[in-house]
Amino acid sequence: MESKYKHLYNQLQAQIEKREYKAGDKLPSEGDLMELYGASRDTVRKALDLLVQDGFIRKAKGKPAVVLDKNKFNFPVSEIASFKEIYRFSDSKPKTYVENLEIVRNNPKLMEALQIGPEDEAFVLERVREIEGEKIIIDKDYFSRKVVDNLPLRAAQDSVYEYLEQEVGLKIGFAMKEITVQMAGDEDRRLLDMKNYDMIVVVKSYTYLEDSTLFQFTESRHRPDKFKFVDFARRKL
Asked: Which residues cross the membrane (predicted)?
């Protein structure tokens, strides 16, 4: 069951992402939030603290919380979320361009990444993501055909996870992620609006089903100025 403060956090976060609270707006006071949501002061403070940690608001003692200008897009490191889910509240109507969708076999890189043999097939799906009129992400997804037997173009253009979960019935469980910063390559410059940037942020993900079956390897390449990667960390004592 979701905790009360996390529920309040999600409500306020959604309002900020939908621009019901815009950059520079002041949130209601703690007392007003308690009254509006029927929440305790502790619940309100924990929700606000989490909004501060995730970069949605700025809060100073004795002053109302202020919504920050998020001209960078949050990319959740500790969650498994599709592009469609991440930008569902965006006003800019992000676009997806499918550059390639094919079946390959005997590819050394994919054999190692997906732990498959030379005779096993894999889908290669390459997409470019456009946000606010700029192409700033290349997503390269590789799916083992042992698990994903079919991958229609309509799913590639919309949401692969929605297709896999709702139509195929797969139960996606967890992912291992690795984040590095690299020099941009010729493909990055060809497909993305790189401006004067010569670096690219690369996120590699290995995604598993609930039964621990590895079915997807992803290499996501991001222009560095538009993204910040967020996580929630707790100190272990």
From this structure: none
Boundaries of domain holding 20? 4-67
Where residue 217 sits, what CATH number does that domain have?
3.40.1410.10
CA 91 to chain centre: 16
d(CA 54, CA 168): 34
- Helices 4-17 & 41-53 angle (0-180, nearest 10): 50
- Sequence-ordered list of residues with C-beta below 8 angstroms from that of 190, at least 6 positions apart, any chain: none
* Span 187-208, average pLDDT: 95
Residues 94 and 158 placed together within one structural domain of the fold = yes
CATH of the domain at 41: 1.10.10.10
Q: Does residue 72 fall inside a structural domain?
A: no
With a threshold of 0.85, does the pTM exceed it?
Answer: no
Angle at 55 between CA 70 and CA 90, to 5 degrees: 40
Q: Enter the tokens of residue 208.
A: 């598993």
| CA proximity to 204, closest of 217, 213, 185 | 217
Residue type at 173 in one-letter notation: G
